[in-house]
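SEQUENCE-TO-STRUCTURE ENTRY
===========================
What this section holds: a protein sequence and its matching fold, both as plain text.
Tokens: labelled as protein backbone structure tokens, with as many entries as the chain has residues.
Question of interest: how does this chain fold, as expressed in backbone structure tokens?
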Amino acid sequence: MKAFPFTAAPLLLMLIGCSGSDVSQLATPIAKQHSNPMAPPVNAAGVEAQKRVLQSKSDDEPISQEDGQLLEGQKAEKQGGQPKPQPKVARKIKHTADLTLITDEFDKKRDELQQLIVKHDGYEAMADVRSSPGSPRVGTWRVRAPIEHFSAFRDAVRKLAEVETDTVNTEDLTDQYYDLEANIKNLKAEQESWREMLKKTTDKLENLIAVKRELDRVTDEIQRKEGRLRLMANLTDLTTVNLTLRERQKFAPDKGPDVVEAATFGMRAEKTFEDSWAALRDFGQGLALVGIALAPWLPVLIVVGVPVWYWWRQWRKHVRTAAAVPVTPATPG
């Protein structure tokens, strides 16, 4: 027992020496920081991580993942490395343009517009051309074009004819799009959980029905939100250009607009016949609607009208009989 202090003394000296060297290693960057005010600040979390690593080495314990990440970060800072920038999120912006053009060559400009739509990888979502005798022709198109061709397509359309109006509207749907995308991702995770639970639920029928109901609800919500996400993607990937092409009227402020096309006698006769036929058709439809409206009242009219008609007929017959009887004058007594 008395020999224990003599054998323990070398071990204590070795531990003191190791701990002193470790503390001196940890104190080095702090001392450098105080000696050089221009040096970058020392990361306190990194110093604590170094202490835990040294302690783990002395105790033969594994290094934790967080400490390893802190040490890697300190190593990158010492080497002058910068953290990798986060990837930029693609913006989801809805573009809508409205253009009104005036031209003297309606047919030619309409054909040129069709060529521009094909050239810029677009398509016609809607087209409506209206013309009537004595009035200028007006065409309306709704064109969907890819976002990368939006500016080029608008510039080309503006060169077709004289521009009367030109407006552009944008709507940022970025937050809505990615929030909806994250919501769908969470719902799919929930859907997978319900599917796993459905496989394990075999004890009671009511539990199976309840799990199936929740699975159907989540699936239906995913489908609805995926449809909305596709719609938002379509609105942002393809732009919308509303185009109106109007034939010019020769206009003077002191008189009315000139007639673009004079109506012939044949046109006027055809239009008169069409108007008359339309009036006759409307009159027939009106009569049919009156008959339809009176149909529910026919039983009431029969119940009330037949007795009234019969009474009126009897009364008229009585009046006629009374009128036919001759009146004999009274003889004086």
Summary: Confidence is low (pLDDT under 50) at residues 1-45, 56-63, 250-260.
